[in-house]
Amino acid sequence: MKRILFPIIVLMFYVPSLYAQVPEKPAEKAQESINQKGKIEIEQDTQKALDKEAFRKAEKVDKYILTANTLREVQNDYNGALGFYKKAIELDPNRSSLHWYTAGVYWKLDNHAKAMEHLELCRSLMPQEPEELNEVDDFIGKLMDYLTVEEKREIAKRRVNDRRQLMENALDVSKGKWEEMTLVASGEFLMGSKEEDFIPEEMPQHAVILDAFYIDRYEITNAQYWKFMDYIMKTGDHSKCSPSEPINKSHLPGNSFRGYEYKYYNYPDYPVTRVDWYDAYAYAAWAGKRLPTEAEWEKAARGTDGKVYPWGNEFDKTKLNCSEARIEKTTPVDKYVQGRSEYGCFDMAGNVWEWTQSPFVPYPGFRPIEGAVAEYNGKFMASQLVLRGGSCVTPPGHIRATYRNFFYPHSRWQFIGIRLARDI
Fold first, then answer.
1. Within a 10 A sphere around the Cβ of 73, how many other Cβ atoms?
2. Tens digits of per-residue pLDDT, 139-179?
3. Which uninterrupted H or E stretch holds 183?
4. Beta strands 353-359 and 416-417, pairing class
C-alpha cells in the first residue's frame, strides 16, 4: 500500500508544477495587448471629449464677456452687462478678471456691498504678488469710504490671513537677514548739539556713558510685523503689551486715512508704518527685544566721534531717502548701503521715524533761552515720546543724528516705524 501511495503523492505535486511551467500562449498575450490598447484609446477619447467641452465652455465665456463689455463701454447698459457677466461667472467662477468686471458694474450701479464682494473674490484668485494686487486694493480703497468702522476693521483683519503666502515666502528668504543686530560697545560719547548750533531741544551737548547693547541693522519690515499680528490674532495673547496700553487695543497698523487693507502692506521688505508707541512696545516684547533709549539710538547713528549724519559730516542725498531724494515714499529697508552708520545700521537717516523708549524731556543742564519761541521752552513735560531718524519726506536739517522729534504714544503718523535693541 505504501508503495502505491508514494508515487501518487509525488504525482500530485509534480503535475501542478508542470502546468505552472507551461509558457503563456501567444493568443493570450495578443488579447491582453488588444485590451490594453483599447483602454488607452478609451481614455484618450474621454480626454478629447473633455477638452472639447472645456473649449466650448471657454468660448462661451469669452462671448459673454465680449457682449457684456460692449454693453458696458459702448451703450452704458450696466444692468445688461451685469446679466452677461453673471452667466460667464456661472461657467467659470475662478476667473479673477470676471469678478473685476462685475465689481466695476456694481460700482456704477451704486451697489457697493456687491462690488466689494466681487473685489474680494478677485483678490483671492489673483497671483499673490504686490504688483498684481495693487490695482484691486486701490479699488477696494475707494469702497472703504462707504463702509462702517466695524466693516473696515473686518477687512483689515482679513488681510492678515490674505497676505500669509506673500509674507511667509519673504520670511523664508530674508528673516535671518532682517533680524541681524550689531553690537555697540560700552563707553562714553557726546550727545546733543553745541551751543553755536542754536538748537534748544538738543542742548546742551553732554557726555553719556552707556553699557554695551545690540541694535537692529534694519527697520522692522511689514513681513516681520505681520508675523506678530498673526500671533496676536491666533492667540489673543496681549500679556507682553504695555501696562498703559488702551483697553481692547488692536495692533493692526493704520490710521483714520489708511488701514491695514492698504496696498502698502503688500510689500514684505518695506518698513512697517502707521504704528504707535504701544504697537512698537508690544512688538518688541513679543520679539524678545526692546525699544532703544534715545541715547542708545544716537550713539548707534553717529558713533563716538560726533558725526552729523550716520555716514559723516556732509549731507549726501544719494545715501538716504529724505525729501531731497524726491521719492516721497518709503523704500526697502536694505536699499541705502552707502548710508549705513559706522555700526552697519541702515536708514538711521530717512525712510521712517523710529520710536524710542525715552520721554521727551530736557537734557541735563538745559536752560530756557530768553526770548525764544514758546514752542521750544514749553514743549517739554508734555507726555510725549522721542522719535529719531527722519523719514522719506523730512528735510535735511531734521535728519541729523542729533535731531529730536516727539509724538504722543497713540500717534500713528504715516511715516512712523520701529527699530529694536537688546541687552547683552
1. 10
2. 999 999 999 999 999 999 999 999 999 999 999 999 999 99
3. strand 181-184
4. parallel
Q: Is 350 in contact with 389 (CB distance < 8 Å)? A: yes
Of the listed ranges 14-18, 182-186, 224-228, 420-424, the least confidently predicted one is 14-18
| Residue given cell 516721497 in the structure block | 328
d(CA 158, CA 229) in angstroms, rounded, equals 11
Strand partners, 206: 191
State the chain's mean pLDDT as an integer: 89
Bridge pairing between strands 421-423 and 353-359 = unpaired
pLDDT in tens, 389-419: 999 999 999 999 999 999 999 999 999 999 9
pTM of the model as a whole? 0.85
Helix and strand numbers, DSSP H then E, in the chain: 12, 9
359 forms beta bridges with 385
Q: What is the CA radius of gyration of the chain?
A: 34
Distance separating alpha carbons of residues 261 and 153, to the nearest angstrom = 9
- In a 13 Å sphere around the CA of 70, the CA atoms on its Cβ side amount to 7
Residue pair 109/76 in contact (Cβ under 8 Å)? The answer is no
Peptide bond into 16 cis (omega under 30): no
Q: Are 134 and 197 contacting, i.e. CB atoms less than 8 angstroms apart?
A: no
Mean pLDDT of 352-364: 96
pLDDT per residue over 56-73, tens digit each? Answer: 989 999 999 999 999 999
The answer for residues whose C-beta is within 8 angstroms of residue 248's C-beta and 6 or more apart is none
25 Cα distance to chain centroid: 69
Residue showing cell 445688461: 80
Are 102 and 125 within 8 A, CB to CB? no
Which helix (H) or strand (E) segment holds residue 130: the answer is helix 130-143
Report the run of H or E that residue 388 belongs to, with start and end.
Answer: strand 385-388
All 3 cell numbers of residue 402?
542729533
Distance CA 16, CA 30 (A): 25
Give the model's pLDDT for residue 38: 65
Statement: residue 33 has pLDDT above 90: no
Q: 512697517: which residue's cell?
A: 272
The predicted-structure confidence for 87-117, as pLDDT tens digits, reads as follows 999 999 999 999 999 999 999 999 999 999 9
Q: How many residues does the chain have?
A: 424
Cβ contact 388:301 at 8 Å? yes
Beta strand pairing status for 213-216 and 181-184? antiparallel
